[in-house]
Design brief:
heterodimer; A: alpha/beta; Beta Polymerase, domain 2; 2 domains; 5-stranded mixed sheet; B: Cytochrome-c3 Hydrogenase, chain B; 3-stranded antiparallel sheet; 15 helices; globular
Chain lengths: 213, 377
């Protein structure tokens, strides 16, 4: 079964369980699911536990002022399928011991831990209101979400309820604002206030030396 | 791990025992750049580790919103600066999917050749510095020797050693000329010999085995839950390789194996990377045989004003590099997100750290092959 057929099968079962979720299938066989903030956590749990979407590739957000942010999750399901080509398990003897080149090193030995091919991909989208950007955290479902959500919080300013350690990750703590928002422009604020020993000349700002005061 | 080869760690006496918080980095030589790890110690045993990143942050994603689609390409070089081609590739794929651009076959093969040479170079740097992190200086010098022949090839083709700006949306900048093919041949020959040498020199080294075996164990389920990809995931026994699972470019026409480990420790990840280098050599040799004549640049619209969105990912040397691109009908991307494997893998440090020794911290950092340019973006 190809990715596209899997996506339509998944689409059908989502329609049954979550009638409120709008879905479409992209030409590349990814399923796009639009979910409301209220259903978001339940839907994610359903995808992980019932449909096997164990791998979270990324979380990000897009700013659509003035009304909404779009939170985007990219999920993969791994499956042991007949589609997956035969897996080769590494033999940990060295070339010296075998006395030959690579082909001998990769003979199938032992039992595979997991045959994994990406059998389906889902893009979960959730609209977060601009004036109150709060959404439940999915760190309890995917531990990797921890830093991805911190990054979204840092750069986009969306708060994740139930996140164990929600603080800025890339920018310093004193940084004002969230730079990936479309309305972010404040150049002078980029300088740490107390670390500004000299009068700073900004192009859009009159300085003492310029105006002759 | 053979316990008799490891000395008993020094711990603080119970009386008056207290935790000691130490900053490792941001200027520590083993942190491969500017990574600061706040570690909590009891004697020389780690109790917690908290990576502090962002020292190289330049908000590349915001920069991309202010420039045009072709102008983004050089910025992608600066994310993973030791494997720039694969980063360019992720962006080029995303932009091509967004614009609906076809890439000529010859260009695809050139991309594969350049991408696999890049994987070899990235793994060589990793091999040398990983060995040096553990105190073995000689492999570093060996690795740097072959790396030079590889960079000779890259320089001959692209004109620069590290930051190539070589891929174009819909193709590549220039073809590989005769000098380039000869340089590639020299590199491949050097690598054939070198891989055997590295193996003899390092793989069964008892000190290395003691330092790496059992360090940073990761089960298959954990690896998937932590979003691991690339050699870190495969070291844990999950045979997932985007080149095989979601074939992009012409990888579906090339025959290669996906090496996987079993115990998921630092030693297995070492073996996976070393075996991947052999597979890369196989791929390059096949690509050289199969490469057809023809154009190297597809037809692209004069004004690139796409709408919609695209998610493209490639199997980079460090793992899954992905680019999420949203267009709104103007010449600038409306939003671009860069998914970097090193950023994701760095979350494993707090997971691994408790109970290990301070000296193992450098092994843990080395084993995920971090490049801070990519972590901080």
């Amino acid at each position: 079964m190809g990715k596209a057929e899997r996506a339509s099968a998944l689409e059908a079962s989502i329609k049954e369980q979550f009638p409120g979720v709008a879905t479409e299938v992209t030409p590349r066989g990814e399923l796009v699911a639009r979910v409301s903030p209220g259903e978001y956590l339940d839907f994610c749990r359903y995808l992980r536990d019932q449909q096997g979407f164990k791998f979270l590739s990324m979380i990000t957000a897009v700013d659509y002022p003035p009304d909404r942010f779009e939170l985007v999750l990219y999920l993969d399901a791994y499956g042991a399928t007949s589609d997956a080509p035969a897996m080769q398990v590494m033999d940990t003897r060295t070339r010296q011991e075998i006395g030959q080149r690579s082909e001998g090193l990769l003979t199938s030995q032992g039992t595979p831990v997991m045959v994994a091919a990406t059998v389906a991909s889902v893009i979960v989208k959730c609209d977060v209101p601009h004036d109150a950007p709060v959404i439940p955290s999915v760190t309890s479902l995917w531990p990797t979400a921890n830093w991805h959500e911190r990054e979204v919080y840092d750069l986009m300013g969306i708060k994740f309820e139930g996140h164990p350690d929600l603080r800025r990750i890339l920018l310093p703590d004193w940084f004002p604002g969230h730079p990936l928002r479309k309305d972010f422009t404040s150049k002078p604020a980029l300088r740490e206030p107390e670390a500004r020993p000299w009068p700073v000349i900004w192009p859009d700002q009159k300085d003492g030396r310029e105006s002759g005061e | 791990m053979p316990d008799n080869l490891r000395s008993t760690p020094i711990t603080m006496p119970d009386e008056g025992a207290r935790e000691l918080v130490v900053n490792m980095g941001p200027q520590h030589p083993s942190t491969h750049g500017v990574l600061r790890v706040k570690i909590t110690l009891n004697g020389e045993t780690l109790e917690a580790a908290d990576p502090d990143i962002g020292y190289l942050h330049r908000c590349f994603e915001k920069i991309a919103e202010g420039i045009t689609y072709p102008q983004v390409m050089p910025y992608t070089d600066r994310t993973d600066y030791v494997a720039a081609i694969t980063d360019e590739w992720a962006y080029a794929l995303a932009a091509e999917r967004l614009l609906g651009v076809e890439v000529p076959e010859r260009a695809e093969y050139i991309r594969v050749i350049m991408g696999e040479v890049q994987r070899l170079l990235s793994h060589l740097i990793w091999f040398g510095s990983f060995a040096m992190d553990m105190g073995a200086v000689t492999p570093f010098l060996y690795a740097w020797r072959e790396r030079e022949t590889g960079y000779d090839f890259m320089e001959t083709v692209t004109g620069t050693r590290q930051l190539y700006n070589f891929l174009r949306i819909g193709g590549v900048r220039n073809d590989i000329d005769d000098d380039g093919w000869q340089a590639l041949d020299r590199f491949l020959k050097a690598m054939d010999q070198a891989l055997i040498e590295y193996d003899t020199l390092f793989t069964k080294n008892p000190i290395f085995e003691v330092r790496a075996k059992g360090i940073g164990p990761l089960s298959a389920e954990e690896a998937i839950a932590f979003g691991a990809s690339g050699p870190v995931l495969r070291g844990s026994g999950v045979a997932r390789d985007l080149r095989r699972d979601e074939p992009y470019s012409v990888y579906d026409r090339l025959d290669f194996a996906v090496p996987v480990g079993s115990s998921g420790d630092a030693y297995d990840r070492y073996l996976v990377r070393m075996l991947e280098m052999e597979q890369s050599l196989r791929i390059i040799r096949q690509a050289i045989k199969q490469i057809p004549p023809g154009d190297i640049q597809g037809k692209v619209p004069k004004a690139m004003k796409p709408t919609g969105e695209a998610y493209a990912r490639v199997e980079a040397p460090k793992g899954e590099v992905a680019c999420y691109l949203v267009g709104n009908g103007t010449v600038n991307p409306y939003r671009m997100h860069w998914r970097s494997p090193c950023f994701t893998h760095l979350q494993l440090l707090p997971h691994w750290a408790p109970g290990n020794l301070v000296a193992d911290m450098v092994v843990l950092i080395g084993t995920i092959d971090i490049i801070l340019g990519e972590v901080d973006r």
